[in-house]
Structures are given as structure tokens and as C-alpha cells.
Hints:
This is Hydrogenase maturation factor HypA. Zn(2+) binds at residues 70, 73, 86, 88. Ni(2+) binds at residue 2. It comes from Rhodococcus oxybenzonivorans. Involved in the maturation of [NiFe] hydrogenases. Required for nickel insertion into the metal center of the hydrogenase. The structure is a single chain. By secondary structure, the protein is of the alpha+beta class. It has a single domain, classed as hypothetical protein PF0899 fold, CATH 3.30.2320. 25% of the residues lie in helices and 35% in strands. The chain has two helices and six strands. The longest helix has 16 residues, at 3-18. The protein starts with a helix and ends with a strand.
Amino acid sequence: MHELAITQSVVDAVCEKAAGRTVHSVRVQVGALTAVVADSMQFCFELVTEGTVAHGARLDIDHSPGSAQCRECGTTFSLTDLVLLCPCGSADVEVTSGRELRILSMEVS
């Protein structure tokens, strides 16, 4: 369950930036190709915020779809998993989105 370590890192960064202020919400972007399960991340968020300035905060997760472009035929196509094959059959593709995992914003007071 790598979501626990990822979520702990998010909470650590948020608490550091909050500098003692209360965190009300955190918004993260999670790409479809990161293999992060959103429900697991939500569960872990509640656990790791316990006793921090982010305790009781809401976690909002924005999902970004996976996409790639074929270097052979130039086609841009959607990716739903890590099978990196163009519809033309080529495996010479460049992933253009879906690997994002970042904190977008946080609300503090």
C-alpha cells in the first residue's frame, strides 16, 4: 500500500507550508498512470493527519487521464493503464500525461 507513504509525504509538505496555521482542505492532482488508488489515499489522509494542523481537513483529488503520442505515426491516444501501445501497434510512444502527482492547493486559516 504505497498510498500511505505518498499521503504521508503530502501531509508533511502541507503541514510544513502551513507553518502552524490550521489546514482546512488540500487539493492534489493524481494521474491515471500513477497506480494511486483514490479511496486508499482518502483513507490514509484521515490517518496521517491525526494530531497535525491538517486534522479534520478535506482531501480533494483531481484525476488526470493518461495520454501518449506515437513517435512513429504521430497519433495522440488515451491510456487507461501502463500498456504503452499505439493503436497502430508501435511501442515507440511518449507519455504526455497521467503521471502527475502533485499538491495543487491548500486552504488554511
